[in-house]
Design a protein that fits this description.
By secondary structure, this protein is an alpha+beta fold. The protein folds into three domains: 85 residues, Beta Barrel (Thrombin, subunit H), CATH 2.40.10.10; 93 residues, Trypsin-like serine proteases (Thrombin, subunit H); 99 residues, Roll (Pdz3 Domain), CATH 2.30.42.10. Helix content is 19%, strand content 36%. The chain contains eight helices and 20 strands. The strands form four sheets. A six-stranded antiparallel β-barrel has the order 1-2-3-6-5-4. The longest helix has 16 residues. The protein is elongated, with a radius of gyration of 30 Å. 36% of the residues are buried.
Length: 380
Amino acid sequence: MLKGPMRPQALLVAALIAFSVTACSPTASPEPRTAGQKATPDNPRPEATEEILEAGAAGLAHTGTPAPHSELSAVIERTLPSIVNVQTTSVVRDIFGDPSQGKGQGSGVVIDEGGIILTNNHVITGAVSVRVVFNGGRTMEGRVIAAVAEKDLAIVKVEATNLEAIAIGRSDSLKLGDEVVALGYPLGLGGPTVTSGIISGENRNIQPQGGVRLEGLLQTDAAINPGNSGGALVDRAGQLVGINTAAGTPAAAENLGFAIAIDGALPIIREILEDPPEQRAWLGVSLTDLEPAAATQLGVEPDLEGALVVEVSPDSPADMAGIEQGDVVTGIGDTRVGSANDLVEALGEWDPGERAELKVMGAAGSRTETVELGQRPVTK
């Protein structure tokens, strides 16, 4: 326990104790009796105590003047209708290959009144259904219309025409120390959560566990917790400056959150909206970089470089081709693959329906699998 000077609260408690002891001394006035005591020569009217209590209770009322709301609270009230809870259902397979339903959730931001919602790709990866819950409880079915895994961005569409779109700010105008607010739906608490902080770093490059490397991120000390992914980082005017995407683990760091800078995200968003999803080749895997520890565990060369398959979507092109969890993709066609980003970017050069040869390393050794690339299925 930390030692130090006695806190004011402790001094107050000590003073109260001293007062009580003094009140019990022979020279003090008799203590008031409690309700329910029998009458005695010293207290012929025990009901008098009840009268005192009733009078005291009647006097308990709001006597102060409510503090004025801050400008920030008005900004948050105006912004919250644009922040949504994204709830997903996915199909996962156990070690025996038997399917079961998985549930997940994150956050999203309305960027167009016509039902366009921006979120993280990792929020909707593997989803077979998406529900969007608005502040106040309104729920709508959503569908994933496209995603860019290498930037961890995705667009969800709901059938609506009158949504409140968030104002888009400029992340390149931010300076270290500027105040920001993170909004989202973390930890399944049943409603939106608002945390505040400052811009504590710029142009950060990170690789979240199980995800692809992300570059040019904003760093903030506003609390970002599981479920905040895809939510908004806004400036004090309520303008969107970032998409919350990752946080340092509690064991490693405190008050360390990261957001995709909106200036870098906007070109990607435009590309997503302009480039129909059927024009994007889809493999159907979740990837991460192969680390030496994982290589040793998988029984492959410790210095092997490649994209480690951490999940295969059922009935996806990868699943049909025999790609399995734990495989390491080291090449596609004539392109060498040294990381998860390498494979994601290489897939951008292929079209749905094309057949590609994947060079794969597994516990049984190296092999080549031919996969017919598909298009990302529409999530209903």
